[in-house]
C-alpha cells in the first residue's frame, strides 16, 4: 500500500475558514485523498490522540484547544507523504515556520497552529486507525499513469 498520513485541521483552522486552503495545498501537490470528515472531538479521544505528550506542561491546554470546536480529519496518500506533508505544514512553532508553509502563512501562535500532521509512518498508521476505524475510501485514479514517474 502507498504511504499514508493523517492530517487534521485544528479548530482554529476551521473557525478561520482555512479548510479549502489546506485541502488545496495537498491536492495540488499531487497527493490522493483517502478520508475526510468534520467532527467534534471528545476530551478522552483528544487525550488518546496526544497521549505521547501527556507529561508536557501544555498538555491540558492542547486538549482544551482541540475539543473547543470541530476539526477536519483527513487521510492523504502518496510518495513520501508523511515527510512532505510536514514540509507543507511547516515547523511546529509558527515563529519558526517558513513563509509558503501553512503555519508560516497562517499562524503566529504555537497553541493555535492550524493543523496537525503525523510525524512518522508509524504514528500515521496509529493515528489513521484511531481516527478512521471504519477504514478509508478506496478509489482508483483515472489519470494517465504517465502523470507520475
Ligand atoms: P502536531 O502534532 O500538532 O502536528 O504538532 P507537532 O508534531 O509539530 O508538535 P508536537 O510537539 O507533537 O506538539 C503538538 C502540538 O502541541 C502544541 N504545542 N504547544 N505551548 C507549547 O510549548 C506547545 N508545544 C506544542 C502545538 O499545537 C503542537 O502542534
From TrEMBL:
Protein name stated in the entry: Nucleoside diphosphate kinase
Cofactor: Mg(2+)
Keywords on record: ATP-binding, Kinase, Nucleotide-binding, Transferase
Record domain Nucleoside diphosphate kinase-like: where: 2-139
Pfam families: NDK
Family: Belongs to the NDK family.
Reactions catalysed, as given in the entry: a 2'-deoxyribonucleoside 5'-diphosphate + ATP = a 2'-deoxyribonucleoside 5'-triphosphate + ADP; a ribonucleoside 5'-diphosphate + ATP = a ribonucleoside 5'-triphosphate + ADP
Molecular function per GO: ATP binding; nucleoside diphosphate kinase activity
InterPro entries, A to Z: NDK-like_dom, NDK-like_dom_sf, Nucleoside_diP_kinase, Nucleoside_diP_kinase_AS
Source taxon at top rank: Eukaryota
Native organism taxonomy: Eukaryota, Viridiplantae, Streptophyta, Embryophyta, Marchantiophyta
Keyword Acetylation: no
Claim: Repeat is one of the keywords in the record: no
Active site, UniProt feature: 116
Annotated positions binding ATP: 10, 58, 86, 92, 103, 113
EC number annotated for this UniProt entry: 2.7.4.6
Amino acid at each position: 500500500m502507498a504511504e499514508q498520513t493523517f492530517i487534521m485541521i485544528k479548530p482554529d483552522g476551521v473557525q478561520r475558514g482555512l479548510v479549502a486552503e489546506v485541502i488545496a495545498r495537498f491536492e495540488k501537490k499531487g497527493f490522493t485523498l483517502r478520508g475526510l470528515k468534520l467532527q467534534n472531538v471528545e476530551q478522552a479521544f483528544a487525550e488518546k490522540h496526544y497521549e505521547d505528550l501527556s507529561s508536557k506542561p501544555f498538555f491540558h491546554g492542547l486538549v482544551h484547544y482541540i475539543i473547543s470546536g470541530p476539526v477536519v480529519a483527513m487521510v492523504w496518500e502518496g510518495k513520501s507523504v508523511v515527510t512532505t506533508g510536514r514540509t507543507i505544514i511547516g515547523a511546529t512553532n509558527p515563529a519558526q515556520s517558513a513563509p509558503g508553509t501553512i503555519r508560516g502563512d497562517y499562524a503566529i501562535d504555537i497553541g493555535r497552529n492550524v493543523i496537525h500532521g503525523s510525524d512518522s509512518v508509524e504514528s500515521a498508521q496509529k493515528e489513521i486507525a484511531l481516527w478512521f476505524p471504519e477504514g478509508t475510501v478506496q478509489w482508483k485514479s483515472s489519470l494517465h499513469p504517465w502523470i507520475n514517474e
